[in-house]
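note to self — DONT lose this again. spent like an hour looking for the file last time. sequence + predicted structure for the chain T wanted, 220 res
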Amino acid sequence: MPIESRQSRSLPAVQILSIRRDTITLSGEWGRCLGTIDRHGTALVWGSSGSGKSNGVMMLAKELSRFGKVLYLSFEEGFSVSFQNTLRRQGMAECGLRFQALDHCTKEELNTRLFRKGSPEFVIIDSIQAWKMRVKDYEFLKNQFPNKLFILVSRAKGKNPWGDAAEEILFDVGIKIWVEGGVASTRGRFYGSTGKAVIWPEKAFDYYGKLPNEDYGEEL
């Protein structure tokens, strides 16, 4: 399906500010990190192995389930014991049918699911590398499903997303989240009261030597 071209237009600031956006206001740790975000769009979460990113993304999935259906593509862990432990840790059973997960799915199968009426509005792909996601796959999802929020999880190399596709996607997404030592930090256009979410208190304490509710200052 071709994307329709839009006619360019110039608007004064007062008119731009009057445009109503479809947004959601997050609560808890993710509210402190991101605050109010666009309901639809793209996000990238990246961090090293053991940083706590899967735990944090599951916490975000539970928060998003307050606003609609969430589909979690668990390509990295499948339905392993570690994935089950994460579900238990975050109390995901409380979400009922608002949260569902897949342990394998082709790109064609995902597209078919998302085109269905009443399909999940929030889609989490964990991870880009495990699914062998390419930039053109990302662009297809973003353009074909503009009324969904795609949250992509990436492995990291150093402080950067791992691989050419992940690096290129990073420059396009609106929400950018770096995870280190059990703490998620916003690197994108959305910023809550602190710009940080403590997504794994025990890990954060071990990593930074501070209690999660203390001010981390510039250490993160």
